[in-house]
């Protein structure tokens, strides 16, 4: 559990003596309340300060570090001298009690020091002390007149000195006779109150009361100082007489010398211990005293741990070292050096760290002097280079081991000496010239060189460290390869390309050769079948790749089937779904004897390492990948196997996705082909040709369609449409719309009305998809045109579809202005028709947007190319279609393309005969005679009886149930068409009469003798038509060829 900072400080306070703990708690509470923007932190030097009799509470902001030291007054001076040392900086303030601090002025001081860090700051006497209760008015009067001190009569003045323009606390006048110095000034007393002058504490009489010392430092400085202080504490010699306690003992064991360090360590003043027995300070009894004194009497030194009694009465654990001395008269004495056991333990830990770095650390370390001669080399560097220590120590860097690495090290050491900066470089150990250069064979080291200095900044030399990061480098390269594979494998949904991408990733980064074999069902995009355990499963080579262009490892060419023996690694890998690795292939490898052809290849090439990994996705094995190494001397290891398994797993998912997509694409393509017309129907109104080009495999099957629908009256409907989206759903929607158009076309609806009803159907389909929570978008575009070869008029309506193009013989290609209705599925807006007169020899092109639109060109360029392709419409239509494909479509279109090219024909006037019929019953006989004469002129006497029957029934119904004008028209085309037109909108109704009915049999008879019949509506009324087969085609109509039209009155 991670402890908070406050809990850490609380734990520290719990160890402080009780009388000091209360003062620290009060100080801590005041600082928390008054110092805004400062957070309480653990003091860096707490153990050291506790040794000196001080306790610290520290607060830090983003820029400053404020320390409050609580200590007894009798140790304050020694403590302040330590703080004022060269390594600790300046600027301490002292207060009698925490309650004496004026935090308002302290905050101003913090702002001023933060604005000008590093300036020489003088603090006026009493400036940060709150006035005593009885002297508030006197202190206020003093400050108002710019005076400092207990009374106005003394007129003691002070100032701030900034060295430049100052901010924060205002300047005060300086009396010319009194200028305080930065070293401090005498203290002045009245009523037991202490006033401070300058940046250091004034001298005072020694007492034992608690006092507070304040120190302000930059945060970066305290961090640097803490780091340096920690290193000094762990590396400094604990028995250094300049820091440790030193005691002089005479020949009788009496203390004759006592240092200040000894006083700080045990609390005794010199006059209290001089002349006393040194053994009296020990608490171990007579045995310990005897153990220490015996070697001393023998004239030898002694070293060990002892326990001493502090002046305050508590026990102190010490480390003692004695050294015998002798003066000129032969008198013996001893010098005892004493230090805390904690200092000794820290020093011993530091020494253990140094020994570990030299003997056990995996980091190579070398120390060179200023002349670049090796002074120290550890075992790790010796193991890295293979150079014995004796060949380096004492020699220059360039002379020890000549070579590129040593010259680089010499340059790096020289740069570190001159600049003082830490230099980081990578060293690559290049393999021998006859070895292949592979990235994973290099030994890579991270080298650092930094200058060594003592505490006085004197340059001693350079330390060079080297860490072998080869494994980390290999791991990074493997990770980079995996990342590269994630972006390179599966870029398309093409199965063959995905397999090739896997092979290109593996070779040459991992292997010298790779072969990928897949199951037949995977390549055929079928459901996966179980794998035979006996090795009978047939695989097919999907791809292979070698580091050599001639690919000498290949036994089976790409696309051919292959079988592996049951005991081969490939068969075992397929059966178990686990990787099979042969780090070393030799004569003892069992499966080699069962596959002599591959074995011969392996022996000729010298293949020494073999790895087979399964290609698995969603729990199904789809094939295996076989990797060989023969040019690289390193065998496959565990890391290589894990890497290849990761690459194979990623590739297997992409292969499975490609298989599923291919299967869906094939299904959609088959569905689309079944729904599209397989040929054009027989009709004489137009000569037509078409092209349908599906999109590439990645884009998926689209919903483009076309149709040519024969209509009544020798007319023909030309349709081209496009459904939104791709895939099997788009193909199914296309089929539904095409069927709907054919059904509506059979009703002989005008183009605008047909598109309106088709729009209603699309809206209904979209509503059904919404109700089923289907996210598919249902919509599309369509153009519907009806051409009449008798009037040579083209009636067109379009729903968001491109306008057709009309190529004239002697004029440029025209894109007629046809009102563009909304796309199918939007609803709300009507569709409009446009009538166009078609000239003889013209060609009309209907197309989807995929023909003219492309990502690499503007749509205007597509229209220009279309015009060029349609030029010279007198060419064969197949040639025109080929030109359009060649000029407008890429090799792999991103969208489906469908277009229909039609050359309209004109029906001769000799093949059409029409008569106006008077609305009298006697006109029926006259019309029958005229029809018979026309049939005789057309040599259709065999159809006279049937035609006479149909004409009689239709004309009679028109005279009885319709209104004038009434007309009869006969058309000789592939069939004989009989049409009766009137001005009524009432639709005839076919019914089956019973034996008792006296009428209502007219339409029934027409339906029985005609090949087709129906009704179409025109702006002037309606037309009832019937088609009769010509005698050369069919003598009698079949019942299933009869189509019943709209019902109505008979």
UniProtKB/TrEMBL annotation:
Domain of life: Bacteria
InterPro entries on file: Bact_Sigma-Reg (IPR052016), GAF (IPR003018), GAF-like_dom_sf (IPR029016), HATPase_C_sf (IPR036890), HATPase_dom (IPR003594), PAS (IPR000014), PAS-like_dom_sf (IPR035965), PAS_4 (IPR013656)
Biased composition (Basic residues): 168-178
Region entry Disordered, spans: 165-202, 1029-1050
Residue stretches making up the PAS domain: 231-277
UniProt entry tagged with the keyword Hydrolase: yes
Biased composition (Polar residues): 1035-1050
SUPFAM superfamilies referenced in this protein's UniProt entry, alphabetically: ATPase domain of HSP90 chaperone/DNA topoisomerase II/histidine kinase (SSF55874), GAF domain-like (SSF55781), PP2C-like (SSF81606), PYP-like sensor domain (PAS domain) (SSF55785), YdhG-like (SSF159888)
Tagged with keyword Transmembrane helix: no
An individual GO BP term: regulation of DNA-templated transcription
CDD domains assigned to the protein according to its UniProt record, in alphabetical order: HATPase_RsbW-like, PAS
Keywords: Hydrolase
Molecular function via GO: phosphatase activity
NCBIfam families: sensory_box (TIGR00229)
Record-given protein name: SpoIIE family protein phosphatase
Species name: Streptomyces sp. R41
């Amino acid at each position: 559990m991670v402890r908070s900072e406050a809990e850490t400080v609380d734990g520290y306070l719990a160890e402080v003596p009780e009388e000091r703990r209360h003062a620290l708690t009060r100080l801590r509470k005041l600082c928390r309340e008054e110092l805004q923007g400062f957070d309480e932190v653990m003091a860096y030097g707490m153990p050291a300060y506790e040794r000196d009799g001080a306790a610290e509470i520290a607060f830090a902001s983003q820029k400053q570090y404020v320390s409050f030291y609580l200590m007894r007054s009798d140790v304050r001076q020694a403590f302040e001298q330590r703080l004022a040392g060269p390594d600790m900086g300046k600027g301490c303030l002292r207060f009698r009690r925490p309650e004496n601090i004026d935090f308002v002025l302290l905050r101003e001081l913090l702002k001023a020091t933060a604005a000008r860090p590093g300036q020489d700051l003088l603090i006026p006497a009493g400036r940060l002390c709150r006035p005593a209760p009885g002297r508030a008015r006197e202190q206020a009067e003093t400050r108002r007149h710019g005076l400092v001190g207990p009374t106005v009569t003394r007129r003691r003045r002070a100032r701030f000195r900034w060295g430049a323009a100052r901010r924060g606390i205002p300047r005060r006048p300086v009396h010319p006779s009194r200028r305080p110095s930065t070293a401090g000034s005498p203290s002045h007393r009245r009523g037991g109150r202490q006033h401070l002058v300058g940046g250091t504490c004034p001298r005072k009489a020694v007492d034992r009361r608690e006092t507070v010392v304040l120190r302000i430092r930059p945060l970066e400085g305290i961090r640097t100082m803490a780091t340096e202080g920690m290193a000094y504490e762990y590396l400094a010699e604990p028995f250094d007489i300049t820091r440790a306690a030193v005691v002089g003992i005479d020949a009788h064991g009496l203390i004759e010398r006592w240092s200040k360090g000894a006083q700080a360590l045990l609390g005794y003043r010199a006059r209290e211990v001089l002349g006393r027995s040194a053994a009296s300070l020990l608490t171990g009894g007579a045995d310990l005293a005897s153990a220490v004194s015996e070697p001393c009497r023998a004239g030898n030194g002694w070293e060990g741990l002892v326990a001493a009694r502090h002046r305050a009465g508590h026990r102190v654990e010490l480390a003692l070292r004695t050294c015998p001395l002798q003066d000129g008269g032969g008198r013996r004495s001893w010098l005892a050096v004493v230090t805390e056991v904690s200092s000794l333990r820290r020093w011993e830990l530091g020494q253990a760290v140094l020994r570990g770095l030299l003997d056990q650390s995996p980091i190579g370390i070398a120390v060179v002097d200023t002349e670049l001669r090796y002074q120290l080399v550890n075992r790790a560097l010796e193991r890295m280079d293979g150079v014995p220590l004796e060949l380096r120590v004492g020699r220059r860097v360039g002379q020890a081991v000549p070579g590129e690495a040593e010259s680089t090290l010499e340059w790096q050491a020289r740069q570190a000496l001159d600049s003082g900066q830490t230099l980081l470089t990578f060293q690559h150990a290049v393999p021998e010239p006859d070895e292949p250069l592979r990235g994973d064979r290099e030994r890579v080291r991270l080298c650092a060189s930094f200058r060594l200095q003592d505490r006085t900044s004197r340059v001693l030399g350079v330390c060079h460290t080297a860490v072998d990061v080869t494994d980390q480098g290999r791991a990074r390269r493997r990770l980079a390869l995996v990342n590269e594979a994630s972006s390179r494998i599966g870029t398309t949904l093409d199965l063959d390309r995905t397999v090739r991408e896997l092979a290109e990733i593996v070779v040459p980064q991992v292997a010298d050769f790779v072969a990928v074999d897949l199951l037949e069902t995977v390549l055929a995009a079928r459901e996966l079948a179980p794998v035979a355990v006996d090795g009978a499963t047939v695989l097919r080579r999907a791809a292979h790749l070698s580091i050599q262009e001639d690919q000498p490892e290949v036994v089976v060419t790409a696309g051919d089937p292959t079988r592996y023996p049951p005991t081969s690694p490939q068969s075992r890998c397929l059966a178990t779904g686990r990787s099979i690795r042969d780090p070393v292939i030799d004569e003892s490898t069992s499966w080699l004897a069962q596959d002599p052809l591959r074995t011969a290849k392996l022996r000729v090439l010298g293949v020494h390492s073999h790895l087979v990994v399964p290609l698995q996705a969603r729990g199904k094995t789809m094939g295996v990948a076989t990797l060989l190494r023969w040019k690289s001397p390193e065998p496959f290891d565990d890391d290589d196997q894990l890497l290849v398994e990761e690459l194979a797993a990623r590739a297997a998912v992409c292969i499975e996705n490609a298989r599923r997509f291919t299967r869906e694409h094939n299904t959609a393509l088959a569905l689309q082909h079944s729904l599209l017309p397989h040929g054009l129907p027989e009709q004489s109104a137009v000569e037509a040709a078409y092209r349908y080009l599906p999109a590439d495999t990645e884009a998926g099957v689209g919903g483009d369609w076309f149709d040519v629908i024969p209509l009544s009256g020798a007319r023909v409907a030309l349709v081209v449409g496009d459904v939104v989206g791709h895939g099997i759903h788009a193909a199914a929607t296309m089929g539904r719309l095409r069927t709907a158009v054919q059904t509506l076309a059979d009703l002989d609806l005008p183009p605008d009305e047909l598109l309106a009803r088709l729009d209603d159907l699309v809206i209904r389909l979209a509503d059904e998809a919404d109700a089923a929570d289907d996210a598919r978008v249902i919509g599309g575009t369509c153009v519907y045109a009806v051409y009449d070869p008798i009037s040579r008029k083209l009636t067109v309506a379009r729903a968001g579809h491109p306008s057709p193009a009309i190529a004239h013989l002697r004029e440029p290609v025209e894109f007629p202005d046809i009102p563009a209705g909304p796309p199918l599925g939007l609803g709300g807006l009507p569709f409009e028709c446009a009538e166009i007169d078609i000239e003889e020899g013209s060609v009309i092109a209907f197309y989807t947007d995929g023909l003219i639109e492309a990502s690499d060109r503007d749509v205007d360029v597509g229209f220009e190319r279309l015009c060029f392709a349609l030029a010279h419409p007198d060419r064969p239509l197949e040639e025109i279609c080929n030109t359009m494909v060649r000029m407008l479509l890429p090799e792999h279109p991103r969208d489906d393309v469908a277009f229909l090219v039609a050359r309209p024909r004109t029906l001769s006037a000799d093949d059409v005969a029409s008569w106006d019929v008077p609305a009298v019953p006697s006109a029926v006989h006259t019309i029958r005679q005229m029809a018979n004469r026309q049939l005789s002129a057309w040599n259709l006497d065999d159809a006279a009886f049937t035609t006479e029957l149909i004409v009689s029934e239709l004309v009679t119904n028109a005279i009885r149930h319709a209104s004038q004008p009434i007309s009869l028209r006969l058309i000789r085309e592939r069939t004989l068409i009989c049409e009766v037109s009137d001005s009524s909108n009432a639709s005839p109704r076919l019914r089956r009469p019973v034996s008792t009915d006296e009428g209502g049999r007219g339409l029934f008879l027409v339906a029985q003798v005609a090949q087709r019949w129906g009704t179409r509506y025109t702006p002037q009324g309606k037309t009832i038509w019937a088609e009769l087969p010509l005698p050369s085609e069919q003598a009698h109509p079949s019942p299933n060829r009869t189509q019943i039209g709209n019902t109505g009155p008979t």
